Amino acid sequence: MIVVYDVEVSRVDRVRKLLRRYLNWVQNSVFEGEITVSRLTALKKELQELLKENDSVYIYTVKFPKAVKRETVGAERGGTEEFL
Amino acid sequence: MIVVYDVEVSRVDRVRKLLRRYLNWVQNSVFEGEITVSRLTALKKELQELLKENDSVYIYTVKFPKAVKRETVGAERGGTEEFL
């Protein structure tokens, strides 16, 4: 799973703290990781309560890890462990 | 394909302009789209020439479109056409 967010600056810290409880931070506004369906439901609920009108979060659900490969151009930021 | 970037603010415009020539802007520092292997090679070359030391671009290559699904929490930003 890949999650990217674009939220109002006053909410960035809270969104980042929330996402950190579920996933791994890997780049500025990007998280990766693998979570269960029930935890994804819980994450979405918490996000909906936190986000305001113009905030945007995209959740890319990956059917199986091997279907997605990550390449880095330039610096590696977060964890470099295997994608999922 | 999903591309996310985290680059020095003075280079954001140029990186965004470059990525727009290959992919679709969908959120703050996120692009999506489907490109050929040769265009991906060309894109990576242009990125390497443009990026400086601490700049970071992640390229997520998706083996086949159906393997990834995008869900939005909050606002939809860029194109809403089918993921790939």
UniProtKB/TrEMBL annotation, chains A, B:
Gene Ontology MF annotations: hydrolase activity; metal ion binding; RNA endonuclease activity
Cofactor entry: Mg(2+)
One BP annotation, GO: defense response to virus
Keywords carried by this UniProt record: Antiviral defense, Endonuclease, Hydrolase, Magnesium, Metal-binding, Nuclease
EC number: 3.1.-.-
InterPro entries linked: CRISPR_associated_Cas2, Virulence_VapD/CRISPR_Cas2
Main enzyme class: hydrolase
Entry keyword annotation includes Nuclease: yes
Annotated residues for binding of Mg(2+): 6
PANTHER family linked to this entry: CRISPR-ASSOCIATED ENDORIBONUCLEASE CAS2
NCBIfam families per record: cas2
Function: CRISPR (clustered regularly interspaced short palindromic repeat), is an adaptive immune system that provides protection against mobile genetic elements (viruses, transposable elements and conjugative plasmids). CRISPR clusters contain sequences complementary to antecedent mobile elements and target invading nucleic acids. CRISPR clusters are transcribed and processed into CRISPR RNA (crRNA). Functions as a ssRNA-specific endoribonuclease. Involved in the integration of spacer DNA into the CRISPR cassette.
Complexes and interactors: Homodimer, forms a heterotetramer with a Cas1 homodimer.
Similarity comment: family membership: Belongs to the CRISPR-associated endoribonuclease Cas2 protein family.
This protein's name: CRISPR-associated endoribonuclease Cas2
